[in-house]
Amino acid sequence: MGADRRPPQPVTGPRPRTPRCADDRGVVTAFVVIFAVALVFMCGLVVDGGRLLNAHRRARDVADSAARAGAQAISDPDARRGVIVLDPAAAHTEACALLDRTPYTCRSGDATVHVDGDQVTVNIDGHLAMALLPGPSASIKEQGHACVAVGITTATC
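User: That's the sequence. What structure does it adopt?
Assistant: Structure tokens below.
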């Protein structure tokens, strides 16, 4: 049975070539470079996008907290008479005092406080420099409102 089998013959001469374009060298390198650039750009979007969302949330929280602090500054003489009235100067001072403990201060112009009747409005205007993406800094504009309320109410300003 095994006597008629012959060992394989070594191939001599040139090997048959598979059809191939002559100038496809370096295609994988170009693909890797393009993919790497896209990957770095996507990482920049994730990092800077997350930082920007966090900065907007923090600015909105600070604006709301400062407005609430200002809305708690009621006039003592009026409160003794049974009338709840917001003291505009004290409201502005209390809101700015809270803002001075944050990156957005009244002195630097990043935040402004407006008192109108029994309402306090805090506007924050800041900037966030991009860490990975090229280009200008991102603008952060947020606003917080609060009004004087006595007791537990569902009324809004």
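The chain has three helices and three strands.
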